[in-house]
Specification:
Elements: E1 9-16, E2 23-27, E3 38-39, E4 42-44, H1 51-63, E5 66-79, E6 84-96, E7 107-110, H2 123-130
Parallel strand pairs: 1-6
Antiparallel strand pairs: 1-4, 2-3, 2-7, 5-6
Length: 135
Amino acid sequence: MSGAPARPIDVAVGILVQPNGDVLLGQRPAGKPYAGYWEFPGGKVDPGETVLEALKREFVEELGLTINRAEEWCGIEHVYPHAHVRLHFFISRDWTGEPQSLEGQAFAWQGTVGVEPLLPATIPLLEWLEQVRYG
C-alpha cells in the first residue's frame, strides 16, 4: 500500500435529549454497513454544507424532525473496516415534530440504553453522555 491515508468522511450526528434525559437511537437499515446496529441518527456532510446544515437536513430526511437548536458537543474519529469517519456530535433539546421511520429504520427512546448491538463508535459516548444529558 502506498500514499496518504484517505481523508476522513465528515459525519453530522445528533443526540436528541428529552426533558427526562432519554435519548433517541436509530437502527441502521438493511443494505448498509453494520446493518442492524444501533447509533445516534445523522449522516454525511455534503460538499458546501456546514456540519450543522447537514445535521438538520439528515434529521428531516431520516426522521421528519426539524432541529431548532443544537450545540456542538464533541468530535471523534473512528476507523471502521469500510470507512474512516470524523463524527461531529451535537446535542439538541429543541426540535419540532415526532420521529418517523422515513427510511424504514427502527428507532427507540432510551433512558438506560438497552438496545444491542451498538455501533462501536457510539459506545464510549454513552458514558460521556451520562454527565451531560440531565443538564
